[in-house]
């Protein structure tokens, strides 16, 4: 796995070199784009209609799931193609008043808040106000005096905090009880010292403290509370106008109270006030509001030339979806076999044996449990909230997404063949099966790797065994500059694989012909 070089290493030379964030010296350039780029697209007809019709399965499954597992209530939504296409509620948001939830009822989403904090950090990075390689002590000076696990530890950077690799110990459920700490109390904890389980930058370990520090850094960089920054710069631009940080600001008929199933009965949980640790888990959202957030994440895919008008750049949202740290217990297993999983920026990442990538995050606090998942390549997502202590409905979300893929026969986006791949295929077929040197078609390395006489002999032998050409198939692209196609022969078929160079006029640098029955 590729690791970004640690800016903090430079800081070991001298603190003076680290006074100004590197981002302040970076030149902003206008990105040029190719008009020939063709993004992957869905090819299945009536896709959204099929998803919508299949979504009813969520209603019965969540109802049964809530009854089997003692959930006071669950609210859920399915998102596809930019909007909430199906939603539902089950149970009671308030057991005393018997009030049923709605899709506008606010639940505390706990650690699902972390992705909002991560998104805010990337937005500030994009604006040149910080750099992910900056040492965290540049913004929280008290971190300069902490004692690390080893003498050769690099200073904790913002990226370490984002990726749960700062070397802090896993702090569930301790962190959950610090939610209402003040900024002064957070900094006082730092002054008292931090215990490290490892040196920074080595491994994943889930840290609520790390995200509380990121919230403080947002405050330091912007001069306003992180809650206000996220509300003004992410929530409101996305139309998430009902979401709140402090539970006392929510009308009693709009909040889901939290419960704990203990001794075969429900016990109401104490709701903590919002505070410095809210950056790791304090936000209250409704299904209608969070559906807009899920839609925004899905809208980042695929990369394309369309206008980029979101509150955060599409490229930065996609950056949030890239795995940075493999979980120490990876691989996991499910019904499809082993899968790899790890942590991105405030989000979890997983890829299973089907090749399906899932981006997700759960949330759990005393009184609440939630989870959301998106499948970027399939353009669908799901979110569900509950008001049961640590009652993540992730198993239900997983089952429903798998069912939707099956019932609607969904296919991932497919990549169109670029013009240059089509052109090079045509060029190849002009010299097959009768090979010629064609210096304007092949890169300078081509005949260095295999001389002309050997190339010619190989092609003649392959086509002699395949027989007369009957048909030539379409190019199957792997990306804009690499692909394959099939030549049907009278006796055997030939698979043709080719890769182009990064030059302005891409030439063939690699060509493999393989006989297949």
Please give the structural blueprint.
Layout: H1 8-11, H2 47-54, H3 57-68, E1 73-80, E2 83-91, E3 107-108, H4 114-126, H5 158-162, H6 183-192, H7 208-222, H8 226-235, E4 259-262, E5 265-268, H9 278-281, E6 284-285, H10 287-299, H11 314-320, E7 325-326, E8 332-334, E9 337-343, E10 348-351, E11 357-365, E12 368-375, E13 380-386, H12 394-407, H13 419-429, H14 446-449, H15 452-466, E14 469-472, E15 476-479, E16 482-489, E17 493-500, E18 508-516
Antiparallel strand pairs: 1-2, 1-13, 3-6, 4-5, 7-9, 8-9, 9-10, 10-11, 11-12, 12-13, 14-16, 15-16, 16-17, 17-18
Task: Give structural notes.
The structure is a single chain. Helix 3 (57-68) packs antiparallel against helix 12 (394-407), helix 4 (114-126) packs parallel to helix 7 (208-222) and helix 4 (114-126) packs across helix 8. This protein is α+β, with helices and mostly antiparallel strands. 28% of the residues lie in helices and 20% in strands. The protein is globular, with a radius of gyration of 27 Å. Strands 1, 2, 7, 8, 9, 10, 11, 12 and 13 form a nine-stranded antiparallel sheet that branches. Strands 14, 15, 16, 17 and 18 form a five-stranded antiparallel sheet that branches. The protein has a two-stranded antiparallel sheet with strand order 3-6. Mean pLDDT is 92; it is low at 1-23. A hairpin with a 4-residue loop joins strand 9 (337-343) and strand 10. The protein has two domains: 8-407, DD-peptidase/beta-lactamase superfamily (Beta-lactamase); 419-516, Roll (Nuclear Transport Factor 2, Chain: A), CATH 3.10.450. The chain has helices spanning 8-11, 47-54, 57-68, 114-126, 158-162, 183-192, 208-222, 226-235, 278-281, 287-299, 314-320, 394-407, 419-429, 446-449, 452-466, and strands at 73-80, 83-91, 107-108, 259-262, 265-268, 284-285, 325-326, 332-334, 337-343, 348-351, 357-365, 368-375, 380-386, 469-472, 476-479, 482-489, 493-500, 508-516. The longest helix is centred in the middle third of the chain and has 15 residues, at 208-222. The relative contact order is 0.14.
